[in-house]
Design goal:
The protein is of the alpha/beta class. The chain has two helices and eight strands, in the order αββββββββα. The chain has helices spanning 2-28, 138-155; strands at residues 40-47, 58-61, 64-75, 80-88, 98-103, 110-115, 127-129, 131-133. An eight-stranded mixed sheet has the order 7-1-4-3-2-6-5-8, with no helix packed on it.
């Protein structure tokens, strides 16, 4: 009888561990959406370079997740990347809000950071953020640094 209780306990522990792994994988992949999915509005922003930004990447303001990247496309007329973001309806941002593509940590995932402005009118469904700052691409920064050092050594 004692071994039966032990087997039931081990089985319950294995089931809980599997459920925890599923929840963790959904959270890490941004597939789990916690919150009201129906109360959202979409806005767009154009960037010269989005780096490694992906669909479902977080959109945050002041360190708080306020939405996610819904779509990424390319504007053939202005030669820019168009990022469509879904923001939760509970969060309102002024018309002069700026958007930047930031990196979580040195080599972490990229996300869109919003910096609210001071305008009295707010972004609404279909609105566009005019002030944007593209992603900082680490390879380009290293390349520029090495090029400048090579120019310094040739000038001597």
């Amino acid at each position: 009888m004692n071994t039966r209780n032990l087997e039931i306990t081990v089985g319950a522990f294995v089931v809980l561990a599997v459920l925890a792994m599923v929840m963790l994988s959904l959270k890490v992949s941004n597939l789990a959406s916690y919150g009201a999915a129906g109360n959202v509005y979409e806005i767009q922003a154009q960037f010269e370079n989005i780096g490694g930004l992906k669909v479902r990447s977080p959109v945050s303001a002041g360190g708080v997740r306020v939405g996610k990247v819904a779509d990424i496309s390319y504007n053939n007329k202005q030669f820019t990347a168009v990022v469509t973001m879904q923001l939760e309806g509970a969060y309102q941002f002024p018309l002069d809000t700026s958007a930047s593509i930031l990196t979580a940590g040195l080599l972490g995932e990229q996300y869109v950071g919003l910096e609210p402005g001071g305008d009295e009118e707010y972004l609404v469904q279909g609105g566009e953020i005019e002030l944007t700052q593209s992603a900082l691409v680490l390879e380009q920064v290293i390349g520029q640094f090495l090029f400048s050092k090579a120019q310094e050594t040739q000038g001597e």
